[in-house]
Design brief:
homodimer; alpha/beta; Aldehyde Dehydrogenase, Chain A, domain 1; Aldehyde Dehydrogenase, Chain A, domain 2
Amino acid sequence: MTLHSKMISMGDRAVIAAREMAKLSAKKKNSILEAMADEITAQKETIQAANARDVSAGREAGLSAAMLDRLELTDARIDAMVKGLLDVAALKDPVGTTISDWNRPNGLQIKKVRVPIGVIAIIYESRPNVTADAASLCFKTANAVILRGGKEAAYSNAAIAKAMREGGAEKGMPDNAIQLVETPDRNAVRELAQMVGKVDLIIPRGGEGLIKAVSEMAWVPVIKHCKGICHTFVDAAADIDMALDISENAKCHRPGVCNAMETLLVHRDIAAAFLPRMIERFKARGVELRGDEDTQKFDAAIKPATEEDWTTEYLDMILSIRIVDNVQAAIDHINTYGSHHSDAIVTTDEKAAKAFLAEVDSAAVYVNASTRFTDGGEFGMGAEIGISTDKLHARGPMGLEELTTYKFTVSGTGQIRE
Amino acid sequence: MTLHSKMISMGDRAVIAAREMAKLSAKKKNSILEAMADEITAQKETIQAANARDVSAGREAGLSAAMLDRLELTDARIDAMVKGLLDVAALKDPVGTTISDWNRPNGLQIKKVRVPIGVIAIIYESRPNVTADAASLCFKTANAVILRGGKEAAYSNAAIAKAMREGGAEKGMPDNAIQLVETPDRNAVRELAQMVGKVDLIIPRGGEGLIKAVSEMAWVPVIKHCKGICHTFVDAAADIDMALDISENAKCHRPGVCNAMETLLVHRDIAAAFLPRMIERFKARGVELRGDEDTQKFDAAIKPATEEDWTTEYLDMILSIRIVDNVQAAIDHINTYGSHHSDAIVTTDEKAAKAFLAEVDSAAVYVNASTRFTDGGEFGMGAEIGISTDKLHARGPMGLEELTTYKFTVSGTGQIRE
């Protein structure tokens, strides 16, 4: 059997599973999710043994300490995975809800109803807990999922998926609701991305290279979770203490994630009052600072920022700083160099806030708060499959609703078109 | 200047225009749309002269009578184009409306606000009136548009776009809000489809070949308007007179459009009572009938339907008919062979209706009405840019709302993440 026909069979099985899943009640789906959680707990030792094989192979292959850390399934991480499944079970099911309904003058009753997307393929890298996270969110929304994890976590992913399938099966989960691509052949990703009519959506989660490759080869819709080059703009009318706290939080709270700040923009009129204190705070936290010429005048330790800095997602304790003349210049900088993810203004000037909210073209735009809040949990969505940097279908945190689509149901009494 | 750099410049100009457009009030946009309509009226003779060049070139090139008809801009069609612009001006503007808003326990106020998508590229074939229709809907929703029409309508499209730009400019339309790709080079489509970061969405409108080519080469999101293989299922519990009227309407009212019926499914228990009368009605209307073995027994004129018939969009006075054993068999046939566009059940049995509505995986699912109603106007959306057969972002008729996306605005009082 060729890879192509193997993958097509997998797609066909997913389509059949998706049709069965669309008929499941919320209660039934939740009991299946709970059974998956129980089975992960029951198979904890097996999962950790599989994980130990991945970790030892990774160590031999020379994976970095950071990658080995991401790979490891400690007791705490297994517990978190189980808790994640139970949390998803407890969330409100969006499937079947009416988004809107109206009647037409000819008597037709139209409803726009939330339905599953169908078959979702998810391509991801190292962290094996994604297997449980992604599968549970797709299952909750009655989407069949085809998972393709990184080869460095192959044994771990297989063990987790097996436990979920076995737990689910006991409670009547449709066969093939959750499938895992186990072949290491990289062409499997291309097959998934080009499976028109079977795969309804492909979500690549990982580095820029993976996302670019998948979106270029894809014939099916893709939702991209790209980098976050997030800004905080300290306006002339900012409350300086608030600006200090927000900026420090946005940069230092967790620098390795996509909603962390990478560039600080400062209004020229507040620079002298704000920047020296801000620089002290960042230096105390060990942040490497790079600035434009005006910024460099404030501290000898500030290195020059190049054009490249404005478009770099450091994901690290590094920050670029630029002084700008007004709100419009801040907006223009963000729209030009940013990644349309999350950007904030700190100001007490309502007019400046309004312009910033209206004109910054990003998934989440903040006034007087840290960009670190761009997150499904923090937004109150309960869980997220990622943060979309695309504008189509889903933008920003993607929760359960964003894993659904809709259809129109139209009820009549014999209406025909004249 | 290479085609690539020409197209990139066009994309850059569109991005700048989109930012300007996002600031326009609804009133301003409407006055610009009205000015476009006035200018098309004022330049009617110039537009018709350009159209005459296209028609005469088309005649020389041997275009079919049907294609020449679609190409021609008669007085009535120019009037319809002008009326279309005024109708779009009169529609409610979705941009800036709040989709939902909520407060978080930490005091953050979150709003999900409707915003323009940005830059939309539209690839279309022969009918030059699409130039005005598509440009006006994109303009109304503050999206910059890049149009690429068929070469057979090149002079007509250029004349219409010029009139719209000149009319709009007088009322302050941002430069490059509407751009038309005038080069006949087919690689221009590839450039548009791969312009990541500039083109936010590409919509191919036309034949299957065009849509397939664009979606395979695209690196940016695509919304496809594919074929409609629409079904009517006459259930055992159907009102026969209603079923006759609905089926005749779905097939014969306008057979050349995507929401016309291509396959009639009939419950075995009602076949003897329903089919002879239905066949008479179709024969009287000149419909060619193709059926499965059971159906063929009802009339010698019914040709055998092959497997290929079930997946064919005739767009013509041809119909395939199949007798099925129950509702589930009808649902399975539709989900297997259909195109997920529009499908109807005729029944007085609520349980059958409910199962059909729930399980048929199509953009629009009907009970006791003709599939011909799948249309932005008939659904009350005011206008449509097409009917999406995709599931992501927009499904079914795409009106103004579907030409927008959203962003989250978050207002705080200094919140940071702990």
